[in-house]
TrEMBL record, chain A:
Membrane topology: Multi-pass membrane protein
Native source species: Paeniglutamicibacter terrestris
Family annotation (InterPro entries): ABC_transp_permease
Main subcellular localisation: membrane
Protein name (record): ABC transporter permease
Automatic annotation (TrEMBL), chain B:
Subcellular location: Cell membrane
Pfam families on file: Bmp
Residues annotated as signal peptide: 1-27
Family: Belongs to the BMP lipoprotein family.
Organism per entry: Paeniglutamicibacter terrestris
Membrane disposition: Lipid-anchor
Upper lineage: Bacteria, Bacillati, Actinomycetota, Actinomycetes, Micrococcales
PROSITE patterns: PROKAR_LIPOPROTEIN
Keywords: Cell membrane, Lipoprotein, Membrane, Signal
Keyword Signal: yes
Name under which the protein is recorded: BMP family ABC transporter substrate-binding protein
Length: 415, 356
């Protein structure tokens, strides 16, 4: 008896998760199609051919197809595997670029996801990342320490900086009820302008220069390159993978994670149940900040090696998208970050090889999120009628006898 | 009334649709064998922008125009990559090198380190960077900077001579050296005018006070600064803020006084500023495009020179534009005075004190 129920429940669970996976996949396909249309429409050759659309419609269509297919082929060559390269290094370089671009996104998005799970809409990854980068840079170029110690200190400082920036938010939220969205947005501004100010002071500014650029960090403060000097993949990626596992363990296996999710689901009920919501809220933001701060270390110690005003790029904001796309699940976040890394790496090649504006990549990214946020839209476009499916599911449940929930049934991993 | 409106709407839509249809009615071009007009040479010049993009109305755009000019003048192939953020710059340069570029041009301090790193890594490719300098240059890197204070000095002198209110103003996009050097030169030019003519023309926005937008995109704030300067009695404004310079032109055009004017920077505002023909007194020209094109030509002819090029009044890298429509509105002797000052600066009789 129990065995059949267990089976039924898991299939339902996988079906639900599978359907979300399917919707995500279809959303990606759909946005690639729309992106392809945009590429075709903005393409000069296509525009030229469109002038005599009725005289030779084939020309326009083939030009449009060539533009879109060419752009996506270039994107593939830039993000996964370059089959046109002459050397093996050149062939596998794209996939390593994807990993490099994804590295800071992984940890930053994990931070955002963790806060989401605790019911906190953390917009502040950007600010936390900047503070992390500032501290990583400062420790990186001021101290002179042997290699493993120095880099360790850099990562710790970055995480602490981010944790502080996130902790402020948690504290204000928990103690005063300040809304975390407003607080994080404002702290983003504070971080941006603090960085701009610091870059104009002798404390950070490169000696002999009036430009707002920091000194270059020492070699001992750089992440080791995993695949040698030909590739930019650095140790931050390993830390990102460890962090993914760590966040999964925290959420699914630890008491704090349980409390965190409980507070996220219903703070009043959790308080009644005896959970210290103040502590949980603060801790969630501290951890989220630390993860975002680590992304700052990845930027400074991994790829850029110095601090400028734009050191954080748009990673902190992309992280929100990645966390949403990954449904705030650690593994989902990892996959989504890799996807976004691939888009960024591919966008570079797309731009240089086919002249397609890199903005198209941003459009595709945004469309993915848009479609994922509206599953019924995707379902109706692809003829997956939700009502019919639901009716079928209801029919299905009628046939099985309801049973009391058992421990084995509910403790499925959500990884 | 409503019927008319609807009819008008219908007519408009019919017109629109027919335009759409007609636009697709051209004759197909006959298949022709490729016979390009300009003889293209086997040399590719490329450019990687920083976050500003190629439409920043500032160094990225100016350098890119040099690239395009090289394409038409020299027949080289060109390629460009726009960086959306700091993380894009290194991959973009790498991508350009692997796409077979012979010379890669970049602009600004944001991309300075990435350019140097790439120059060291790829000694067979030439690099040129606008508005940035290094302590030591590898043999394949050329840095292009400009003593814009020399030309701005002339602009400051002219503005002071033209001013009816005895107050001239300036504002910058951000307090960075490539911006403040204009403002400092402008201030010194005004001070020189006061000394020579025993006048007391004031400068607002640099010197005793500082005014900055803090970015190069906030048109609302830039317009506010321009309006405030005009309200303060300033009648000549020099905006040093890339695309935001247009807001000063708009403010001057819309102001009650007909004598207000703008000193444009980077390009000749007479041609480049929108509605600038009767608003731009003069322009401090920084020949970024020309020097980028020169660098490309050097590379093309195997004469690439690794040097820290500095554009001056003497070598024509910076200059003051003619007064154009203001020629008869400025004091009669001004043009000759400016020419004499220019010669004095070239001869070293007038020295610029370092911008601080």
């Amino acid at each position: 008896m129990t065995s059949t129920i267990k089976k039924h429940n898991t299939t339902l669970g996988t079906r639900l998760r599978g359907s979300f996976f399917l919707v995500s996949l279809l959303a990606i396909v759909l946005s690639l199609i729309v992106g392809g249309l945009l590429i075709a429409v903005t393409d000069e050759e296509t525009a030229k051919a469109a002038k005599y659309l009725f005289a030779a419609p084939g020309d326009t269509l083939s030009a449009a197809w060539k533009a879109a297919a060419g752009a996506y082929a270039a994107m593939f060559r830039g993000a996964i595997f370059n089959y046109q390269a002459e050397s093996f290094t050149g062939m596998i370089k794209p996939i390593t670029e994807t990993l490099t671009m994804a590295t800071p996104l992984i940890t930053a998005a994990l931070g955002v996801a963790l806060a989401f799970r605790a019911g906190l809409f953390n917009i502040g990854a950007q600010g936390q990342l900047i503070i992390g980068a500032v501290l990583a840079g400062y420790i990186g170029f001021t101290l002179n320490l042997p290699w493993p110690l120095h880099i360790l200190l850099v990562v710790l400082a970055a995480a602490l900086g981010g944790a502080l920036w996130g902790g402020i938010v948690g504290l204000l939220k928990a103690r005063t009820g300040a809304h975390e969205v407003i607080v994080t947005i404002m702290l983003n501004y504070v971080a941006v302008y603090l960085l701009a100010f610091l870059l104009s002071t002798p404390m950070m500014q490169r000696p002999g220069s009036n430009d707002p650029v920091s000194q270059i960090i020492h070699d001992s403060a750089k992440y080791p390159l995993i695949f040698g000097p030909d590739f930019r993949v650095h140790f931050g990626l390993i830390l990102g993978l460890l962090a993914t596992w760590g966040v999964w363990w925290l959420l699914e296996r630890s008491t704090l994670g349980f409390e965190l999710k409980a507070v996220g689901a219903n703070p009043s009920a959790s308080r009644t149940a005896g959970i210290n919501t103040t502590r949980v809220t603060i801790l969630a933001m501290v951890l989220a900040g630390a993860l975002a701060g680590m992304a700052g270390a990845s930027q400074v110690s991994g790829t850029e090696h110095f601090v400028v005003g734009g050191v954080a790029a748009s990673i902190g904001f992309d992280a929100i998208t990645v966390a949403l796309l990954g449904r705030s699940r650690p593994l989902g976040v990892l996959v989504a970050a890799l996807l976004f890394g691939a888009f960024r790496a591919g966008g570079v090649a797309m731009q240089t090889q086919t002249g397609t504006p890199i903005d198209i990549v941003l459009v595709v990214q945004s469309l993915i999120v848009l479609f994922i946020a509206a599953p019924p839209l995707v379902r109706s476009i692809f003829g997956m009628n939700a009502r019919k499916a639901r009716a079928a599911a209801a029919d299905d449940s009628k046939n099985t006898t309801p049973t009391p929930p058992s421990g084995t049934v509910t403790s499925g991993s959500t990884l | 009334m409503r019927i008319i409106k609807r009819k008008a709407g219908m007519a408009a839509s019919i017109l629109g649709i027919s335009a759409l249809v007609l636009s697709g009615c051209g004759a197909a071009p006959e298949a022709s064998t490729s016979s390009s007009s300009a003889p293209t040479v086997d040399y590719t010049a490329c450019m990687v922008s920083d976050e500003g993009g190629f439409d920043d109305k500032s160094f990225n755009q100016a350098s890119y125009e040099g690239l395009v000019k090289a394409q038409t003048d020299l027949g080289v192939k060109i390629n460009k990559a726009e960086s959306n953020s700091a993380t894009d710059m290194k991959p973009n340069i790498e991508s350009m090198v692997s796409a077979g570029c012979d010379i890669v041009a970049t602009a600004g301090f944001n991309i300075g380190d990435a350019t140097l790193e790439a120059a060291k890594k790829y000694p067979e490719v030439n690099f040129a960077i606008v508005d940035y300098g290094y302590k030591t240059l590898p043999a394949n890197l050329r840095s292009l900077s400009y003593n814009t204070d020399e030309a701005a000095f002339l602009a400051g002198y002219s503005a002071a001579a033209y001013s009816k209110t005895g107050k001239v103003g300036t504002f910058g996009g951000a307090e960075i050296p490539t911006v403040t050097i204009f403002m400092e030169g402008f201030l010194q030019g005004v001070n020189h005018f006061n000394e020579v003519k025993n006048k007391d023309v004031k400068v607002v926005g640099w010197g005793s006070s500082k005014s900055f937008v803090n970015d190069f995109t906030d048109t609302v704030k830039a317009r506010q600064i321009s309006d405030n300067l005009l309200a303060d009695g300033v009648d000549v404004i020099m905006p040093v803020a890339g695309p935001l310079g247009q807001t000063a032109v708009d403010a001057v055009n819309e102001s009650a006084s007909t004598t207000d004017a703008v000193v444009w920077v980077d390009t000749d505002g007479f041609d480049y500023a929108k509605n600038g023909k009767d608003a731009v007194l003069t322009s401090v020209i920084k020949e970024m495009g020309k020097t980028v094109e020169e660098s490309i030509e050097m590379g093309l002819n195997d004469k690439f020179k690794s040097e820290a090029y500095v554009g001056t009044l003497s070598n024509g890298g910076v200059s003051l534009s003619p007064f154009h429509n203001f020629a008869d509105k400025v004091p009669a002797d001004l043009q000759s005075e400016v020419d004499a000052l220019k010669q004095d600066i070239i001869d070293g009789k007038i020295k610029m004190s370092a911008a601080k």
